[in-house]
User: Fold UMP-CMP kinase 2, mitochondrial from Sinocyclocheilus rhinocerous.
Amino acid sequence: MLKTAMFRGGQLCSRVFAVEFDLRTEPLYFTLSSNPQVLHHAHQQLFGDEGKLFSLHVHCDNRTEKARTHAEIKHKLSVTLSRDCDVFEASSFIPDVKNSVVKGFFIRDKSTTTLSEDMLKTLQQSKSVCVFSYKREGQYCWQELWSPVNQVEESVRQYITPAAAAEHHPSTLNIRNSDVFYCMKEAYEVLQECTDIIPESKEVLKLVDEQLETSRGDGFPVIVIEGLDATGKTTLTEALRESLNATLLKSPPQCLAPFRQRFDSEPPLIRRAFYALGNYITAAHIGKESLRAPVIVDRYWHSTAAYAIATAVGGRVENLPKPGSELYQWPEDLLKPNLVLLLTVSPEERLRRLRGRGQDKTVEEAELEINQLFRLKVEEAYKRIQNPACIIVDASPSPQEVLQQVQHLIRNKMSLVTRQDKKPCNPSTHH
Ligand SMILES: Nc1ncnc2c1ncn2[C@@H]1O[C@H](COP(=O)(O)OP(=O)(O)OP(=O)(O)O)[C@@H](O)[C@H]1O
Ligand SMILES: Nc1ccn([C@H]2C[C@H](O)[C@@H](COP(=O)(O)O)O2)c(=O)n1
Assistant:
């Protein structure tokens, strides 16, 4: 069977290919056609005369294997290919069809070495990796299945045909249950599928199981504090604990701390499932603690969803799922807080605070610093999450002033909250 036939969702020709050529602009979109097509100027920039061109795509039925293979290839490409090679994120998808995305990379090799071919030769031996090469003739360019020894099963010329931008950026099509989980069962199943390759998954699942008996009763208010790193969440949540005589909880909860680094090194599917489960454990703690006192929570589902969406979506803020998208909806089975406050400071003030703190930066924090686009996407995704939406708090004044502002907000908002607003927490029947 032709390897390309394994691409999900039917014929290769009905698929659109997207190459994230320049992160600040739209991806370059193209389809394939058996008729030669003259390339547009934009496409000539990518398919122009310079270098050898390849793309590779990872397609496999087992989602955890697929995610890990993609991450491994990304790592290999970044450490192995020389400075003469450009590697771009690429994907193939059926416009506006959920879960139709096949992720991969586009390689432009301007070197005179065979480094990229050697590497592709090894990768191509895996049945879940499909490699194409691109050839040029005058104004035309075509794609064909690549083989290092020219023994392609069925070498068909498919001409590159410029295509219009899709309404929904391709990276938004696979977010549900790959980057963001909308019920506990879905995240739980991902970790169940990993128990052989990541033994720690069993321990995490055991901790989740132990919390399930706890159910939510009506009680004191639950207030979540959200924001990018160094916006002042720890400072504020501790001050609120004192002033409200509240219980302070965090997501992920302390019991998951020994596993966090392990899951942070995994691809998004597994990493995000871990954080999603952390929210359910914290929800169980909230259920218990809110019977005794007000509860302050340092990060919760808004963080999980906003970081996951911003990481999954390539390029510009405009590529995020549109406001009102179902991807911003709160999971049905996760305890809802009464109030969510989003701390915001200017990028300059945040950097000042990060530097003042002088701590080691996590990879993601470092990325935030250098990646303005990512920071903007996280903040915008926070603001688009609905039901409950977050209330924006200007956290640039002094800690005392921020505390007073928030106390005022809590007093005002909580007087509007009736007990009926709190939804029951019963993350049960997951397996
Ligand atoms: N209102 C404020 N004005 C000036 N500095 C502040 C203010 N709030 C916090 N800081 C300082 O900014 C730094 C970051 O604050 P904090 O640790 O509370 O942020 P955070 O949001 O919890 O960060 P992270 O998510 O990375 O843990 C600390 O050095 C803290 O003392
Ligand atoms: N409820 C949560 C809490 C955190 N995360 C992820 C998002 C970031 O990658 C990172 C930030 O956490 P911090 O460094 O401030 O401890 O953790 C999440 O997904 N869900």
